Structure of Protein-arginine kinase:
Amino acid sequence: MSLERFINQQTSAWMSGTGPDSDVVLSTRVRLARNLDNTMFSTVFGLEEAQRIVEEIQEASAETLALELLKMEDLSPLQKRVLVEKHLISPFLAEASLYGAAFISEQEDVSIMVNEEDHLRIQCLSSGLQLQETLNKANRIDDVIEEKVQYAFDEKKGYLTACPTNVGTGLRASVMIHLPGLVITRQMNRIIPAISQLGLVVRGIYGEGSEALGNIFQISNQLTLGKSEEDIINDLDSVVHELMSREQSARDALMQTSPVRLEDRIYRSYGILSNSRIIETAEAFQCLSDVRLGIDLGYIHDISKSILNELMILTQPGFLQQYAGGPLRAEERDIRRAALIRERFELDETN
């Protein structure tokens, strides 16, 4: 398989980098947690009940939603790892080999995880900042399923979930945002605590417990109880717009006060990625962040804007091993990562 064909087949529509405000916001995700009424939570049920839930969701979605069913027990560890890296399933679901399943759309912008922490986690992904639009899509899918099944719902508490932090709307909305200016100017250490005080949380690119590789942060709501869906979306949207404004100010300040250092940083990273024969994940992400910043600021013209979105997936361990056709040692992955990045750059320059 050629690299070009691999990229075309393996990247998702939400990685295109064509959505609103995509110079700073890479993607938007909305997830709704739901459980079936009169059914034990996924943390305590057995295999028979788990299989029944998968069948019920398949029947509920079959007529209206064009989704492909993937059962975790049928997938190899590498295949599940790739799905995690593409944000289509959670690490929690990947480990649920006897119980878990996912219904995924052809464009990979919809993923319904079944028998994760909750019976259902309806997830929708969009390019750029599209909180309301992505919520609307998730709600339409939710309505289709609710026509066929009965959810666990309380008039006072809202939707009932396995974890108390999801009770209420069951809504988790998040944006993946690229903030190199705020990191370089050392403002993020002050901003993160301030965001936490607003009922939001800042995490790495794979959510809880993950690193903020390549100056990419995931901003999401913490509270689901006592707030409406619209309140949650509006609060998050307001904070994201403030972050975007501050990021632009930080970039402007860097260009005014340290233009030569900034340009040197960008082109050094460009040179490393274009010529390295071996590169680790953290260094690759940092250099990709610098190159993406260079594209946004107009320093670099012959590399596509979507490169950070694509390569932050394609250079992950699971993808590298899938591309190689089998398991790789750490050093072999670093060599493959460097080769893939060089080829990706050459592909853009040729086109």
Remarks:
- Residues 257-349 form one domain.
- The beta strands are 25-34, 67-71, 101-105, 110-114, 120-127, 153-154, 158-159, 171-178, 200-203, 216-221.
- The radius of gyration is 21 Å.
- Confidence is low (pLDDT under 50) at residues 1-8.
